[in-house]
Each structure stands twice: as C-alpha cells, then as structure tokens.
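About this split. The held-out portion is used to measure sequence recovery: a designer receives only the structure tokens and must propose an amino acid at every position. Recovery is the fraction of positions where the proposal matches the reference. Here is one held-out target exactly as it appears in the evaluation file.
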C-alpha cells in the first residue's frame, strides 16, 4: 500500500529530526492502516507507542485519534474492557475539545461495537446520531472506514428490518451532540 510506505518514510524522517509530535501522528496513521489491514498486534503496538508521545507534546487531537484507534483495535482482539476504557477516554476528550470529526468517528466505532455485541438498537441509534452530526457540521466519514460502516448497516437492516432501522436512525439523528456522546458512553459502560 503506497500510503503505508509514505507514512513509514515520514516516520523515519520525523524521528531523524526529532519532531515528536509528527512521530506520534505517523505512528497513529500507521496504526490505523494496520487495523484496516487486519494486523492487530502491529496496530496495537504502534498506537501504544503513539499515546505517550501525544501526552508529551500535549496534542489533544492526536491523542484523541490514537485513543479511539487503539480502543477499536483492542475491541477487534476481543478485549472489550480495555476497548471501553480507551474509547470512553477518547470520546470524552473529543467532546471536551470540540473535535467534531473525531466525535463522529467515536460514535461510529462504538456503534460498531454495539452491533457486534448484540445491541443492534443502540448501534442503529448511534449510526443515526453520527450521520446527523456529519451532515450538520459538513464533514465526511474517513473513507477507509466506509466498508466497515456499510457492513454494519447491512447487518443491522437485515436483523432489525428496514422500518425499525429507519426509526432507530431517526431517533439517533434527533439527539444533540452531547446526548449522543452520553448515549455512546452509556452503551460501552463509560457513562451513566
């Protein structure tokens, strides 16, 4: 994959010049690519290396990105407790600093977890909330995640039926950003 090669090259250069913030960003990008390629041990290692660097540079955006990515990666390994902790921290941080695209991604990732954890109603509501958030604020889903989103939508439509799915998505779309975050955190046990 050309993008991975470019990020590897960038990582080497940023390390060489000592730009810790850019090293953290490159590690997170490579970690996300590894998640999408199914190489979860590599993804987790890269993301775990990125997080302390994000803390060291106090880059909250990069930290949020790394936490959400790590939470999703560890969920895919079956470690739900650890996934909940990272996703809760990442989504809360995204809310605190108002990073709407990362809030949307966090909602999508928690929807995916809900859908895979026998909580289809919650997954559908969260998908409705994240789609509405993107529409209201004019940002797009990360294209690399589109196939996961499409698979989840198809699975939920099949299980819930078109009408119920539409009703649940509409209920999610009616939530404010704060309500959607609270609902997502409640879904993964990170809120009340």
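Reference sequence for scoring:
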């Amino acid at each position: 994959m050309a993008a991975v090669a470019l990020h590897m090259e960038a990582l080497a250069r940023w390390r060489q010049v000592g730009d810790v913030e850019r090293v953290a960003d490159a590690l997170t990008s490579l970690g996300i690519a590894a998640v999408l390629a199914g190489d979860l041990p590599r993804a987790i290692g890269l993301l775990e290396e990125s997080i302390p660097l994000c803390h060291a540079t106090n880059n909250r955006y990069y930290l949020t990105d790394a936490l959400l990515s790590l939470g999703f990666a560890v969920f895919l390994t079956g470690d739900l407790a650890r996934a909940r902790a990272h996703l809760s921290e990442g989504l809360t941080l995204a809310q605190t600093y108002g990073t709407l695209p990362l809030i949307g991604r966090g909602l999508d990732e928690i929807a995916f977890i809900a859908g895979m954890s026998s909580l289809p109603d919650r997954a559908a509501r969260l998908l409705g909330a994240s789609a509405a958030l993107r529409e209201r604020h004019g940002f797009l889903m990360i294209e690399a995640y589109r196939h996961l989103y499409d698979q989840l939508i198809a699975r939920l439509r099949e299980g819930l039926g078109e009408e119920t799915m539409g009703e649940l998505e509409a209920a999610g779309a009616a939530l404010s950003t704060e309500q959607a975050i609270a609902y997502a955190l409640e879904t993964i046990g990170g809120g009340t």
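Annotator remark: The chain has one domain: 2-187.
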